[in-house]
Amino acid sequence: MSHVEIGGLSGCVGETVTIQGWVTTTRSSGKVAFAVIRDGTGLLQCVLVKSQVAEEVWDRFQGLTQETSVAVTGEVRAEPRSPGGYELGLTGLEVIGESVDFPISPKEHGTAFLHEHRHLWLRSRRQVAIARVRHEVVQAIRDFLYERGFVCVDTPILTGAIGEEAGNLFSTEYFDLGSAYLAQTGQLYGEAAAAALGKIYCFGPTFRAEKSKTRRHLTEFWMVEPEVAWLDSDGNMELQEQFISYIVARALDRRAEELKELERDTSRLESVTAPFPRLSYTDAIAYLKSEGHDLEWGADIGGDEETVLASRYDRPVFVYNYPKAIKAFYMKENPDDPRTVLSNDCLAPEGYGEIIGGSQREDDYDRLLARIVDYGLDPDAYKWYLDLRKYGTFAHSGFGLGVERTVAWICGIPHIREAIAFPRQIHRLYP
Amino acid sequence: MSHVEIGGLSGCVGETVTIQGWVTTTRSSGKVAFAVIRDGTGLLQCVLVKSQVAEEVWDRFQGLTQETSVAVTGEVRAEPRSPGGYELGLTGLEVIGESVDFPISPKEHGTAFLHEHRHLWLRSRRQVAIARVRHEVVQAIRDFLYERGFVCVDTPILTGAIGEEAGNLFSTEYFDLGSAYLAQTGQLYGEAAAAALGKIYCFGPTFRAEKSKTRRHLTEFWMVEPEVAWLDSDGNMELQEQFISYIVARALDRRAEELKELERDTSRLESVTAPFPRLSYTDAIAYLKSEGHDLEWGADIGGDEETVLASRYDRPVFVYNYPKAIKAFYMKENPDDPRTVLSNDCLAPEGYGEIIGGSQREDDYDRLLARIVDYGLDPDAYKWYLDLRKYGTFAHSGFGLGVERTVAWICGIPHIREAIAFPRQIHRLYP
Fold it and tell me: Are A216 and A416 in contact (CB under 8 A)?
């Protein structure tokens, strides 16, 4: 059943074709009628002149409702005023599947209602645009890393007791081996792979059983985590700024139409080019205090303060070398200031906050073991991870970029739950 | 800390460079010594002439052990007999990290021992080669689909009670919403996305809590699942044969070196071009019976019989239109023979068995509901899935390709557990 797609009509002007798709809108003057059809690859206006078609076709057309699936036949005409640039002079119309009272009408709906009908809401123009931007971001991530010789290494989701934070874990019974936990990160496995392959990345879903109900949190989200042997913290930030610049440029270049559909102010994205400004944690705290924020050296920087810091720049900003006490056990101690670690966050502008967390990793066996013990973790579970420091230890760094936060920022949408097809939040597991 | 990679030495002949990496092997004649260094991007032979280097460098060299991490400095020379085509005239040697008694020596080890040390075993030449082939397969999958306008839609891992088989599910407690289950497939979500975007794919880890202990089973494995609106079962098989041919050709083209390392007979892969032979289930059973196999129409075709069928061809073979009773509820009934469904498996040659399962989906609301009830599933949990047949139903088809099985076949390795970095089997959750 080969068929012509709306997205591929440019070579069909003057030809008579059949298109299969769904009705989005219809209007009729009594003599001329219009329908906009979508098929996932684009939108196509169909024009029907009563005097030129069989009466049964005209009558059938009057019965079309939103999301009825149809096969429309007619001649393709160039029409610059139409969405997509073409229109169809409709001569034949077949109804494939009816659609009575489609729940998502063009009127406003509440958020809960829309999410309850997410499987149908996905068909709306805005949601289609977001999905295509996300798709471009995902492929851009893969292409950037592939072209630079990074090897994709898929790290496990089901893991023993190992990860970033002891709390916030989803667990499942694993045959006779007790509990398995859903990975919060692939990084530790990525470090093992970096010793084998030099430059690697993992890219998959990650899980946090967090009770956070903010517009920046999901319980299941996708994260890409590059890990590079022989790279230090400075080089890590250089890699990150090149990475983000590439992703944004690619979205601007190839998804201009979708960003327009989303009414995104793309001038705010065009300034996102490397290098990005860099601010030490210590300087960031000093600035925030000078602006009247009530926090002292050692405190974490919250979402609101991130927005304050990021709003000073026209591109993302790095905040680097956080206090050791508020960061993960595997981050390398800063030799110039042992109160801190060689870490960095990358904050997106326009209030989108942290999109990357990265660090140079602790490569000294004894220090790492001490940190594991200090953090109350079980050294036995980390035996294999410690082995990486026992057999030819190596300087290495990496980071994790959250896909939904990045997509939300690029699309300019307020909540990351629209940046994934079927979001998982603490109160949402359906559809 | 910028550094030169072994994989990037072609432009450095005659220059003095420093390389950071790990020692794989060393040998010494007393006057001249050799070490092969790896850094993840390639192998480099280093040559050391005692009379030409400082005594301390010579002495330090004698202490090198397998997997010691080092920085080696010297002049790059073209040397066709060396692995990679270059060698380093070593003048400087710094030991970065010692490696005492690295567990994986060049001697033979047992399977259990190797898997227990998977984090270190990954560094061996064969495992590096497999990882790079897998990486190429993953990128080839993405590129094939991207170039053809498929939109990547990441479907959820955490799901309500919905999936392929009621048993074999991993479950986890999900806040106040009861149990969530780890997805066995993203297909059902993919169908909703296909109605929005036309051609989509999901590609992520999938989970089966199966007690199968065969060389073809993992509890966690990666699967790519394209889903296409307005595609029928025949078109689905055409898509599959183009897809597989592309992936195999890409591996042959870009990973020739790795396939050589794996001693793969690549002539067996060169014949993998579309079209593939197609055999109905009914004909397959008749053939197997004629060959003396003891099975009747209606029985499933097991792994051994798959091998018999596939061994008749020099490329994968489709077996299509299986009995309805042994296939999933969502497959479309065959209008020409209602005992069967419009499904297909794709069997790889050389005993690798099923690498794809695909089908046209049931698009009639009433028939689908009846099947859900017949299979003892809860229609309420499938309400959103049924909605896809209620609002503008559409012919559509799709399939799932297992990454590890495909990689194992292309690499010619006997067990799929080596086709993923950290395999999960019923008795293995570590490292």
Answer: yes
Tell me the residues of chain B between 303 and 342 that have a Cβ less than 8 Å away from chain A: none
Q: Which contiguous run of DSSP H or E holds residue A344? A: strand A343-348
Q: Do B394 and A20 touch (CB under 8 A)?
A: yes
Which residues in chain A are contacts of B131 at CB distance < 8 A? 151, 153, 193, 196-197
| Helix ranges, B220-280 (H) | 233-254, 256-261, 267-270
Tell me which H or E stretch contains B230: none
- At B133-173, the pLDDT tens digits run 999 999 999 999 999 999 999 999 999 876 555 678 999 99
Determine the Cα–Cα distance for residues B304 and B308; give it in Å rounded to an integer.
7
Q: CB distance B131–A149 less than 8 Å?
A: no
Chain B's closest residue to A364, CA to CA, is: B97
Give CA angle at B410 (B409, B411), nearest 5°.
90
Q: How far is Cα A96 from Cα B207, in angstroms, rounded to an integer?
A: 36
pLDDT per position as a tens digit, A259-275: 999 999 999 999 999 99
| ipTM score of complex | 0.97
The per-residue pLDDT of chain A, averaged, comes to: 95
Q: Give the minimum alpha-carbon distance from B389 to chain A in angstroms, rounded to a whole number.
A: 8
Residues 389-428 of A with CB under 8 A from B: 389-395, 403, 420-422, 424, 426-427
Side by side, which strands form the sheet with A179-182?
A: A158-159, A179-182, A171-173
- For B231-275, write each residue's pLDDT tens digit: 999 999 999 999 999 999 999 999 999 999 999 999 999 999 999
Global confidence as pTM: 0.98
Residue A291 distance to chain B (closest CA, Å): 36
**CB proximity under 8 Å: B 31-50 to A:** 39-41
Q: Backbone dihedral region of B251: left (phi > 0), alpha (psi from -120 to 50 degrees) or beta?
A: alpha
Rounded Cα gap, residues A331 and A343, in angstroms: 7
Residues 183-202 of B with CB under 8 A from A: 189, 192-199
